[in-house]
Design goal:
alpha+beta, 7 strands, single chain
Length: 150
């Protein structure tokens, strides 16, 4: 397995993975969104053979970078792929001079919450009815310049 930057030729695989992982209530990305983010954001993929098994998307056109989406194919979970992708993204953000990484996560996504907290993200506030199904989200923040982070 290897981590690399997403390419325009990855759009179809990214879109199919997205549709597999996220319901409409969770704001899945379209093919057009992937095309845009490949050119304008930080988008890394985890590739196994010819298959993309995971990705991480960070928006970088702001004062603070924002982790917008991370997805790992169900058959590849439990192998610390999300952690590896986040580490790669944080390394890049440091090189670009970013200090803070923000994200929103469903309050009922305990697996993601545990991962983010282990990396060093801290809950800033609860966002009421953030998702289309009425589920709340946590706004979380990571100081990427802090010692001991990833």
């Amino acid at each position: 397995m290897r981590i690399r930057r997403a390419l325009s030729s990855d759009v179809r695989q990214l879109y199919l993975l997205e549709k597999k992982l996220f319901s409409e209530e969770n704001f899945p990305l379209s093919k057009g969104s992937f095309r845009y983010h490949i050119k304008n954001s930080s988008l890394f993929v985890m590739q196994e053979g010819y298959d993309i098994v995971a990705y991480v998307l960070v928006l970088i056109k702001r004062k603070d970078a924002k982790l917008y989406s991370i997805g790992v194919d169900d058959s590849w979970r439990g192998q610390k792929i999300a952690n590896r992708l986040l580490q790669k993204s944080i390394e890049e953000l440091r090189k670009l001079g970013f200090v803070t990484l923000l994200l929103e996560v469903r309050v009922d996504n305990l697996e993601a919450l545990a991962l983010y907290q282990k990396i060093g993200f801290e809950i800033q506030k609860r966002l009421k009815a953030f998702y289309g199904d009425g589920c709340d989200a946590y706004l979380m923040r990571l100081d990427i310049k802090k010692e001991g982070i990833v």
